[in-house]
Input
Amino acid sequence: MNRRFFTRNLALGTALPYLLNGQKSNRRHERPALLKPARLNRGDLVSLITPGSFIPDAGLEKAVKNLEELGLRVATGKNVRAKYGFVAGTDSQRLEDLHAAFANPEVKAVWCARGGYGCTRLLPYIDYHLIRRNPKVFIGYSDITALHMAFLQKTGLVGFHGPVAQSGFTPYTLEHFVAVVMEGQATHTIPLAEAYANPEDSLYKFSTLRKGRVQGELLGGNLSLLAAMAGTEFGLDARNKLIFMEDIEEKPYRVDRMLTQLRQSAHLHQAAGFALGIFAGCDPEEGDDSLTLQETIIDRLADTNVPAVYGLSFGHISHQCTLPMGIMAELDTEAQTLRLLERAVQ
Output
C-alpha cells in the first residue's frame, strides 16, 4: 500500500465533515449586527489553541504561565501539540480545537498560543453559526488577523487584536489588555508606549503622516494577511473605516505591493483614517534601490487626504495594546492617541 497516499486521504476524510459544514455556512450575506462577548474575569476558564503554526514546548509552557499569572484557568486544545509540516496539525485537527473551544459553555475565552501561517486555510470550513451562538473573547494577532476578519464579517463577533498567549506580557501590554478585555471600560485611551520602551529603541518612533482627528469603525490587522484575503469573501472593505495595520520583516517594495493591492481591491483610498502600528524590520537594507518605509507608506496613502499616523504600539513588538475589531474609535494625531469610544465587552 502507498502509505503517503493512504495518510493523505485519511486526513482529508477526517476533515470532510468540517468541509461540508463550512460550505453550508459560507454563503455571502450582509454582516450581522455587532456581537460583543462577555468580559473576561479572574478565575475564568480559557481555551488555548494553535490555529496556525506549531508551537514548541517552551512557547507553550510560557503561554500557559502567562495566562495563569493573569488569574485565569487554562485548558489546552486536544490537538495543541499536533504537527503537520509547517502547521499545528491538519486542518481538521485545528478546526476541531477551534470548534470545541467555542462549543464548551465553561470556556469564556479562546486565546491563540501563537500566530503563524495556517489560519487562512480554515476560513471556508469554520462553523460560523456555532461561533455566533457562543460568542467568546477571542485573542491574537499576526496571522490570527484572518480569523478576526472572518468572525466579524460572518458573525459580527468583536475580536481582540492583542498579544498571543506566548507573547512577552510587559506592563504596557497588561495595562491595556486588562482595561479593554477584563474591565470593559466605557472609553479607553491608548497612548504611545514611550514611557515603557527603552529611549534608545528606534522602533518606537511616532510620526504624523497627515494631521487631524477622525472617528470610525476600527478594522484591520496584519498587512500581509489583509492582502492575502483580498478578492475573497473575507477580504477587507476599508470604506469609511479607521484602518489599523502593521507588519514585520517585509521590504518596502513588498509593503508597496500589498498596499497597492488593497487600494485596488479593498477601497483603501476611501478609508476614514489610518492608525498604523510599528513595521518592525521593514526598512531597506543598505545599498538597496528603495524608498524608505515611511516614504513608501506616504506614497501609497498620501492621496487619501485623511488623518494618518505611524508608530502606534501594536504589532510584532514587545509593548502591544489590544485593539477590538469593529467598535468605534477616534484617532487624534495631535494628542498622539487612539481612543476606544465604546465598550468592547458586555
In short: Residues 3-25 form the longest helix (23 residues). The chain has ten helices and 14 strands. The radius of gyration is 20 Å. The chain has two domains: 12-169, 174-340.
